[in-house]
Structure formats: C-alpha cells, structure tokens
Design goal:
Layout (H helix, E strand, L loop, with lengths): L3 E6 L8 E6 L8 E10 L1 H8 L15 E8 L16 E4 L2 E2 L6 H4 L11 E2 L17 E4 L5 E3 L6 H21 L6 E5 L3 H12 L4 E6 L2 H10 L3 E4 L5 H10 L6 E6 L4 H7 L3 E9 L13 H6 L4 E4 L5 H14 L9 E5 L4 H9 L5 E4 L2
Parallel strand pairs: 10-11, 10-13, 11-12, 13-14, 14-15, 16-17
Antiparallel strand pairs: 1-2, 3-4, 3-8, 3-17, 4-5, 5-9, 6-7
The protein binds zinc ion (2 copies).
Length: 365
C-alpha cells in the first residue's frame, strides 16, 4: 500500500464529497489497517448528506459497513469468531465501537445500543481523527474493534450486498420473537426490509407479505422469500389491508415489521397486526414526524406488543456472517448491491440512492 490513502470526505451537509489524501496511520498495539475491498451507500448515508442525524462531527468519511483485506497488523488480533486474523486475510468488522460497558444503558437497562460513549464508523467518527470510514482506500481498525474473518464461501459482494441491512434485520428478528408458522408483514423493501423478508422465511414464517416500491424491488422481495408483494404506489391502504385480512382468516398477521421510515407506515401497520400480535418499529432511524394513531383501537384494545429496535450489537454482526456462510448461495443478498461506484463517483451514487434507482450502491475504492 502506498504511503497515502485516498478518501471521499463529506465536509458538511448538502455539499459535494471531496477527495482527500491521508497519511497511512501509525498503528498502536492491537490495531490494524484494512485495505477496503467494498463499502456501501445506504439510506443512512443519504440522511448524513442531508444533515438529518444529530451529533455527526462533520467532516466525516462515510461508509459504516465495509469489508477488506488486512494490510498491516500490529500485534496479534483476536477476532470475535475465535480466529487470529493476519495480514492478507479477508476480514469484516463491526462498525459500532467504544461501547463502554459501564454506563447505565450498558449495565442497568441492558441496552448497549443506547450507550452514551458508543461511536460508529462512517457516522459519528470525525475525519479529523483519521480513517474511520469505508469510502476510502483503507480503514483504520482501532484496538478493540470487533472483527471477524470472512468465511471462504462468502464473497465480498455477498457480505456488502447484505451489509448493514442484514445486521439490523438479525436484531429485528430477535425483537419480533417470531415463531414457526407465524404470518408476517414487512413494510419497506429497502436493504433492511429485504433482509427481514429473508430471515422471516428462514425462521419458519408460513406467509410473508411485503409492502414497498418500486416494482423491481418487489421482484427482488419475491426472490428474497416474500409470498405476496403489494405495491405502495399502485394500491391503497384499504386494498392492502383487505388483501392481508383475506389471506389470514380475517385475523391479521402475527408480526408486522416497519422498515419503511414513514409515519404513514406506522398508521397502516398497526391495522395489519392481529390481536395480541407484535409490531416492531425499526425504520424510524431519523425523525419522520408524528403518526396519527388511535391508541384505544390500534394498541390497547388489540393487546398489542409495540417494540422499537435501535442499532445492533456485536452478536448481530457475527450471526449475520454465519447466516451468510450458510445461506448466501441460495438467498440473493448480493443482488441488493446493484451497482458499483468508485470514490470519484460517490456524488452520483448518493443521488441514485435517493432517487431509488438502486437499492444499494456498492463502493469500490
Ligand atoms: Zn455504555
Ligand atoms: Zn447502513
């Protein structure tokens, strides 16, 4: 690797990305430098470009989920999967780091994804501190970052096609407490929704409905495991509700997962769950505004479980790798990463992602 590293930097919201050169960092003991094979452009990056997330220390190098080859390693690395990765190995890492293990969230509430010290590569790490994002030729893996060796049978394109969406979906499935035979509605056919569809199918759901748009995403939703798809743009709320009721003995489904990020989706989703069912809200990663719900009719009288789902933990990351090792050959995660962009093309990638021309752009620095 040369002595400088090229990175795409978002200096402030709503400004074009800038290419900057960084020196190769000195590595303290336990650190490593990852030569980036792939990173991704996901919905979060569009939010970052607009400045919709709070506490983002611009300038940043975006790209929170990435994969690559270890270029330099200082001291032995201990991976989460028990392996001891060396230079030349293909590895992936968990973007969340510095979760403290001591604060109230970590210890009392047992909600480490709400830890006050928690930082995330490509989102809450400033580019002034170094190579903390995947839209760069190399990524600095600081000591303590959770890494895993990418299994031989998992291609970089499988891992990054699944990306943050699959890791989030593993957490969502935990929150959904899905049982074999359950019927499920997934609202949203972006990267998260598509992975939820696949995992619900693998977890034994007897019927999976997907609500989304546009049509090519619905086609992919079918290939990911959806039995029925409903186009958000060409059907009404009433029509979709009728279709769900018709196929569930007029009962509604056991679990609805919101992965749409729309306040209207919540209003609709509560009407699709059966009495005593569960509604998992995972798409409201930024403030999508208030939803108008009738608590008596839609929650209390229905005896509903409503659960939020925020971020993910190292276990979700490691299980995502294992899921890919077992299932990437048959579930088309790699198709989610529809198009690949170089570092100098990332302004186009953001525009394409926002226009929903693609589910996810891959970044190949
Ligand atoms: Zn903490
Ligand atoms: Zn993401």
């Amino acid at each position: 690797m040369p002595e400088t590293v090229l990175a795409a930097v978002l200096t402030a919201p709503r400004t074009p990305l800038e290419l900057r050169e960084y020196p190769v960092p000195d590595l303290p003991s336990g650190a490593a430098l990852l030569r980036t094979a792939y990173s991704e452009v996901c919905g979060t990056d569009v939010h970052l470009w607009y400045g919709r997330l709070t506490g983002v220390p611009y300038p940043i190098i975006p790209g929170h989920v990435s994969a690559g080859v270890l270029d330099r390693v200082r001291g032995p690395l201990a991976a989460l999967d028990g392996s001891r990765p060396r230079e030349g190995d293909r590895v992936v890492f968990f973007d969340v780091h510095r979760t403290c293990g001591r604060c109230r969230a970590c210890t009392v509430s047992r909600t480490p994804t709400r830890c006050v010290s928690r930082r995330v590569y490509g989102i809450t790490d400033s580019a002034d501190e170094g190579l903390f994002g995947g839209w760069a030729e190399a990524i600095y893996l600081e000591p303590g970052v959770a890494i895993a060796t990418l299994p031989d049978r998992v291609g970089f394109e499988d891992y990054i096609g699944a990306g943050c969406g699959l890791i989030t979906a593993v957490h969502i499935l935990d929150r959904a407490a899905l049982r074999h035979g359950d019927r499920v509605v997934v609202q949203g056919t972006g990267a998260v929704g598509l992975s939820v569809i696949a995992l619900a199918r693998l977890a034994g759901a007897s019927r999976v409905f997907a609500i989304g748009a546009p049509e090519d995403r619905l086609a992919l939703a079918r290939r990911m495991g959806a039995d029925a798809v409903m186009n958000l743009q060409s059907s009404s709320v009433e029509e979709r509700r009728e279709q769900v009721l018709e196929s569930t003995d007029r009962d509604g489904v056991d679990v609805v997962v919101e992965a749409a990020g729309s306040a209207r989706a919540v209003e609709e989703g509560l009407g699709l769950v059966r009495d005593g069912g569960a509604y998992v809200i995972a798409g409201h990663y930024t403030d999508a505004g208030p939803s108008a719900i009738n608590v008596h009719h839609q929650i209390n009288r229905k005896h509903l479980d409503v659960r939020g789902c925020w971020g993910s933990e190292p276990g979700h990351f490691l299980r995502a790798v294992r899921i890919l090792e077992r299932h990437a050959a048959t579930v088309p995660w790699r198709e989610i990463g529809a198009r690949t962009y170089g570092l100098e093309e990332l302004n186009d990638a953001l525009a394409d992602a926002e226009a929903m021309k693609i589910v996810k752009a891959l970044v190949k620095p």
